[in-house]
Amino acid sequence: MKRAFITGITGQDGSYLAELLLAKDYEVWGLIRRSASFNTGRIEHLYQDPHENPRLRLVYGDLTDGSNLSSLINEIQPDEVYNLAAQSHVRVSFDMPIYTVNSDALGTLRLLEAVRTCKCRPKFYQASSSEMYGKVLETPQTEKTPFYPRSPYACAKVYSYWQTINHREAYGLFACNGVLFNHESPRRGETFVTRKITRAATRIKLGLQEKLYLGNLDAKRDWGFAGDYVEAMWLMLQQDQPDDYVVATGETHSVREFLDEVFGHLDLDWGWHVEIDPRYFRPSEVDLLLGDASKARRMLGWEPRVTFCQLARMMTEADLKRAQREQLGRQSESMGA
Ligand code: NDP
Ligand code: GDR
């Protein structure tokens, strides 16, 4: 049985990757942070009683604590390490640049060092990002497109990208970068624009909310489905040689088009509900992302299955169910009062 260690297992991608690896009969170890309230909602359906010899185990740690990462890697002796943990919100990285760099850049180095010094020498996956391309130098963006990061988050990810390659070249580690373009799902964090839109639109539909405040509606992104993208992560670590790959759909759409799709599906006109709040603008923006995943298609046999429209609908339907439950909850509360 193969053993994987996932940082960021409580996040969107961590939950889908854990599902995928458990289905492939892996033993999965996930790093979680101590939190005052539950932070394991996305993996609750996978978790079993720790007394029943489960294949999913959770251990406490943090990317800012290198000695803890080293002891965990030594203790667990994983075959594969997936570094998905990060302060992943680009806008927030302008508010918390030092923390973001500590976890997203130095955190990767701490984990790489833990992997390098462990006798088991696990394979390593780094969650690199299309944000590294930043200012548009060419489209579509490929593995050869130069980086021009436009936020503390993106700068930290560029550092981690190169440090991963340096550990591969200097120490012979099997270390890969997946340069993943935006990927979404019903499990996407509520403050990322797609989920913010599907959550608000469905609540507006049911009369639970009136307005939705957004920032730049002209930004264009290459949006795919997270469930498809975690397969690419796994495939990268199953190859004979470590390498770096772009993972994308090859289509780009604006925030405006996402609004059209979601509000249209609910028979609503977003023009009546959306207002612009400058607080959501970024000090420097990434205007256009469009990826070319030909290498991943050719070398990994990977391709995206879910289209832009299917993704928007999947997220809208899931949030509509949540909004209906919220509405029922409110009704039964007011009946009880
Ligand atoms: P999420 O924000 O949903 O999840 C981030 C995870 O990292 C959470 O489990 C979080 O824990 C954990 N985390 C944050 N800081 C630390 C820390 N200091 N130590 C340990 N754990 C920490 O992100 P996604 O699942 O969307 O993304 C996964 C990775 O892929 C991230 O590295 C992201 O930057 C990168 N990426 C994402 C893309 C996307 O479109 N989703 C595209 C390209 C790259 P907690 O639950 O406790 O907050
Ligand atoms: P992004 O995703 O920055 O691309 O990073 P996000 O959904 O936050 O923003 C996408 C675009 O939408 C514009 N936008 C808004 N964004 C947010 N969050 N809230 C708003 O109200 C809003 N209004 C407009 C943004 O300006 C931006 O142009 C995501 C994260 O998952 C990163 O971790 C990952 O690396 C990249 O995708 C690829």
TrEMBL record:
Gene Ontology MF terms: GDP-mannose 4,6-dehydratase activity; NADP+ binding
UniProt source species: Anaerobaca lacustris
Keywords: Lyase, NADP
Gene name, Swiss-Prot/TrEMBL: gmd
Cofactor: NADP(+)
Pfam families: GDP_Man_Dehyd
Gene3D superfamilies from the UniProt entry: NAD(P)-binding Rossmann-like Domain (3.40.50.720), UDP-galactose 4-epimerase, domain 1 (3.90.25.10)
Name of the top EC class for this enzyme: lyase
Biological processes annotated in GO: 'de novo' GDP-L-fucose biosynthetic process
NAD(P)-binding domain segment(s): 5-315
Protein name: GDP-mannose 4,6-dehydratase
Record-stated family: Belongs to the NAD(P)-dependent epimerase/dehydratase family. GDP-mannose 4,6-dehydratase subfamily.
Function: Catalyzes the conversion of GDP-D-mannose to GDP-4-dehydro-6-deoxy-D-mannose.
Catalytic activity: GDP-alpha-D-mannose = GDP-4-dehydro-alpha-D-rhamnose + H2O
E.C. numbers: 4.2.1.47
CDD domains per record: GDP_MD_SDR_e
The organism's place on the tree of life at top rank: Bacteria
